[in-house]
Design a protein that fits this description.
By secondary structure, the protein is of the alpha/beta class. It has helices spanning 14-23, 37-44, 57-61, 78-87, 102-115, 129-139, 173-188, 220-223, 297-312, 320-339; strands spanning 4-9, 27-33, 52-54, 68-71, 91-95, 119-122, 146-154, 194-202, 231-238, 243-249, 257-264, 267-270, 275-280, 283-288, 343-344. It has a nine-stranded mixed beta sheet with strand order 14-13-12-11-7-10-9-8-15, covered by helices on one side. Strands 3-2-1-4-5-6 form a six-stranded parallel beta sheet, with helices on both faces. Strand 12 and strand 13 form a beta hairpin.
Length: 348
């Protein structure tokens, strides 16, 4: 049986992606790459087949036993690493967001598409089973016209404190968390073309050393480098008049939640708990959908699809181009929040 041999870059989000690949009968993890050797050794020690280990990803790209790579580094390095991977002839799977700027994302997409290699986003919420269920119902026409949605990703005290890349320019809450809830909602709605964004946002907790993960205190020299948002909220308008109200908060005086609410002409829905709302014969119906919580399966779905795209020439359901459109929306949200003005998309 032919297998896809994958190199994993980044031992944070790289771990669940690697485990998903290993659970696929046609997937192998042949190499790991991280600046911290102890993190690689810790993960490698749990694998039945020891992978090679690199601290320089460019050396890994010269390895003939690596067919494809997963890029799971801070936002600012996604594009340089993925570009080098494509130029080395490796298929690429990139964690969200695609980049730290729309311009960088566009450069990567153009080169990846010209290469003919498989290029895909690793989107754990889009590939989660409840989101996939709502997407199937939407494409079957159950909701009628999906004209509006609310998408919220809220933490009470959850600013990442383990990597400065999260809080420096190019990082931030909306690129870290907003991307998940925005991408999933946009995908369910059929990926309409965005036309405009009006947003608010900023940093109310991080620059004061507050709101970090699990209420931990971080050194002043750490939070003094804060250069990103810790919250943003926007109304995104699409061609045809549909809209998404989206919020992302790394820290807030609110309970933690991740929620998507869909409003359609024939029915509506809520992600958590998974519920369909409709009216039949003048009677309101709230239909609870029993779906066991199996969050690990999202990684299996991502890995399986990436592998079948490579080996079976299956059309990619989450190409980097999707990540580019979401990136353009993300950057428009942050630009609008900074300027206080609406940002028009498709006119720049």
């Amino acid at each position: 049986m032919k297998k896809v041999r994958v190199g994993i870059i980044g031992m944070g989000i790289g771990r669940p992606n690697a485990r998903g690949i290993l659970r696929d009968p046609r997937g192998r993890v042949t190499a790991l790459c991280d600046l911290a050797e102890d993190r690689m050794k810790d993960f490698a020690g749990k694998l039945s087949e020891p992978p090679k280990m690199y601290t320089d990803y460019k050396k890994m790209f010269r390895d003939p036993e690596v067919d494809a790579v997963f890029v799971g580094t801070p936002n600012q390095s996604h594009v340089p690493i993925a570009l080098d991977a494509v130029r080395a002839g490796k298929h690429v799977l990139v964690t969200k967001p695609l980049a730290d700027t729309a311009a960088a994302a566009r450069t990567l997409v153009e080169e990846a598409e010209k290469s003919g290699l498989v290029n895909m986003m690793s989107l754990s919420h889009r590939f989660d089973e409840p989101v996939q269920y709502l997407g199937r119902r939407a494409r079957a026409g159950e909701f009628g016209e999906l004209y509006y949605a609310r998408a919220h990703s809220v933490r009470r005290s959850g600013i990442p404190d383990w990597n400065l890349g999260f809080i420096k320019k190019g990082g931030g809450a909306f690129r870290d968390m907003g991307v998940h809830v925005l991408d999933a909602t946009w995908w369910i709605m059929g990926m309409p073309r965005p036309t405009g964004v009006l947003a608010v946002g900023g940093a109310k907790f991080g620059p004061r050393g507050e709101g970090f993960a699990h209420f931990r205190r971080v050194p002043k020299e750490h939070y003094e480098q804060y250069g990103a948002d810790d919250y943003a909220a926007a109304m995104i308008r699409f061609e045809g008049g549909a809209g998404i109200q989206v919020e992302s908060h790394w820290a807030s005086h609110q309970p933690q939640r991740f929620q998507i609410e869909l409003l359609g002409t024939d029915a509506g829905a809520r992600l958590r708990p998974l519920t369909i709302y409709r009216t039949e014969n003048g009677v309101a119906q709230d239909v609870s959908v029993a779906m066991p919580a199996q969050p690990e399966r999202r990684w299996d779905h991502i890995a399986h699809h990436f592998i079948e795209c490579i080996l079976d020439n299956t059309e990619c359901a989450a190409p980097l181009r999707h990540g580019l459109v979401v990136q353009e929306m993300l950057e428009a949200v942050l630009e609008s929040a900074e300027t206080g003005s609406e940002v028009r998309l498709g006119e720049r």
